[in-house]
Design goal:
CATH superfamily of the largest domain: P-loop containing nucleotide triphosphate hydrolases
Number of domains: 2
Helix content: 25-40%
Strand order of the largest sheet: 5-6-7-3-8-9
Oligomer: single chain
Bound molecules: adenosine-5'-diphosphate, magnesium ion
Distance between the termini: 19 Å
Order of helices and strands: EHEEHEHEHHHEHEHEEHEEEHEH
CATH topology of the largest domain: Rossmann fold
Length: 332
Amino acid sequence: MNAIHVTNLTKVFRVMQKEPGMGGAVKALFVPKYVPKVAVDQVSFDVQTGEMVGYIGLNGAGKSTTIKMLSGILVPTSGEVQVLGRDPYRERVANAREIGVVFGQRTQMWWDLAFIESLNLIGRIYDIQPARYKELLDRFAKELEINELLNIPIRNMSLGQRMRAELVATLIHEPRVTYLDEPTIGLDLIVKERIREFIKEENHNSGNTIILTTHDLGDIEELCSRVIIIDKGKLIYDGSINKIKARFGKVREVIFEVPHPPEILDLPAGAEILSQEANRLILRFDKSVITASQVVSTIMNQIEVNDFSLSEPNLATVIKHIYKGELNGQED
Ligand SMILES: Nc1ncnc2c1ncn2[C@@H]1O[C@H](COP(=O)(O)OP(=O)(O)O)[C@@H](O)[C@H]1O
Ligand SMILES: [Mg+2]
């Protein structure tokens, strides 16, 4: 069964156009000129009950705008959204009971209240049964180690602490559909790992349907088998992460800065020369055959190297290849 059904979803903002300089700013005050900004452009997809989908795209791609339309915060300009069979905007109240949203860059809690007071309020607003509330709070406290945070106001928390608190605050009313909008943004690797682990468990144990937006491919690799990629508001890929991993996950590049171009080079198995210019040698290697340090040491045993660096696959590269037709969306 589909938990989420989206057809040709579109959001156009009207943004005030400013002319450059003071004169322009003053003029805009009196004769504002609006230009349309298409943030989400004819996006269609379905998400099944219990599925966890990665919704990824670069900054400004339209991820948060999509999430806001799915949660009923924004009304679509055109197209259709159904979440658990409802129109999230027209049936905001009923929708809100069954969904949860975490915005990585914003809090939904009361800034000055101690975390536990915020939670208690949420418990009352959602009318959570006290025994159930306690049971869930105990479980989350253990899994996310939030016991020492309960008496701290949100405004005094570090980003990682706040993110853990947000997850608890969102999941305590047991939403059937949860949107996590960049939940790991700005976090260090250890906190990131813990949060990823928690999200994975939660999806597994509760059957919660989850949309996770991120520009961090690492989040997706660990959590989602299906990804939807959007770019400039348009859906450009909807398919398995494995296809992306197979194409981009195994191959890495090492760039060597060399004083003299090598004449002959003995390459280790799994590595090949990608390009060779006067003072720069780029090798490509297969991570499943050889490690980066093996490649580096083999080369450094043979030639003089001033410096080297390792490239990681990033979302921008993946998107570029999608446009070149190297990955076809809408299939598995
Ligand atoms: N309230 C708004 N008014 C005008 N433009 C907006 C508004 N919200 C978002 N945008 C624009 O829409 C585009 C998509 O934004 P957003 O959905 O926040 O992207 P993402 O979450 O993928 O970074 C951006 O160009 C952004 O500047
Ligand atoms: Mg965003």
